[in-house]
Amino acid sequence: MVHGQRRVVPMYPRVKRVRRGDQVYEYVQLVEGRRVQGKVRQRVVATLGRLDQMKASGELDRLAGAFARLDPPPVGTRREVGPLLVVRHYVRRLGIADIVDRATPMRGRALLTHGEVVEALVVNRLCAPAPLYDVAGWASSAAVHELLDIPAGLLNDDRLGRALQALAPVAEHVRGETTLAAVDAFDVDVSQLHVDLTKLRFAGAYPDSTLVTKGWGPDRRVARQVQALQAVTPDGVALYVRPHPGAAAEVAAMGAAMQQLRQLLPPGLVVIADSALGRLGNLCAADRAGIGFVVPLRADTGYVEHFLDHVGHDALRPLRYVSQRQAHLPPNRRTRYRGVLRDWDITDPATGRPHRLRVAFIHSDRKS
To answer: Which H helix or E strand runs over 279?
Structure first.
């Protein structure tokens, strides 16, 4: 010992194997290295526990996390930043980690919460998508530790899998909370939402998938697909995205979306959709949910027969409407439209209760 200075004794963990009869047990020990008469000698400072029991209880992960947290990257370390600064700003403003942590509380003192893991996964998908087994590799080359305070060594595929397993039962709640956070943080106008159900085709075999299933597509063929339902604002901000099995009925997918949107967003919402919503069952479900909508009716709703029997061509009046693609044409070459608004009383196929819709019957001289 030199006066005025303190000698640092290096310590490190090691695994000690002990044989008891036919069994071999492994113990994790913390040892320090000392030099005695020119030779390095190890002294056991503490026995931390049996290796298999520490793994099962998560104590080994917490121990590794403690060392990783206490060992920040050295000054001068070069790491890739790229879009990480921008993505970090938005995930922190949305509070994704806090939303997940409230929905998936962990027992005891956790050095890496489920929310931190999900936050890291979201950042990875937005910056440089990687498979679960290589997220730690991406984090070690990117400035994840410096900007997110998440050590790369803790993002192993086992920890990622446990976080996703904890998230699965509350995923719908987390999505809803994130949607509300986005609306509040960025003052998003949600008075109108454009809803679309898109079919995404898949190649290959998915024998165990409940999502990738065979279904009828827009090309009038049956193939493996996933139906993605998306609701966006007029400015293109996606607030609601949900996957549905390829064989799921459009009525069920749209009905579920209407219920979720009604619960998430304030009253007065108007949904603008294509003909996927234009079935009577979907329209009645939206009306039951108190959601206004603008949607083209499908032919199988019977609107043509209703028009011919109860409205008629004599009720149509000229409309002062000009499409953008014809605005440059002279008046005599533009398509002329006639229309009328009428109430239409229909019966809900699910409940048998009546609903009154306001229908715009529109006729053009080019296409009826």
So the answer is: none
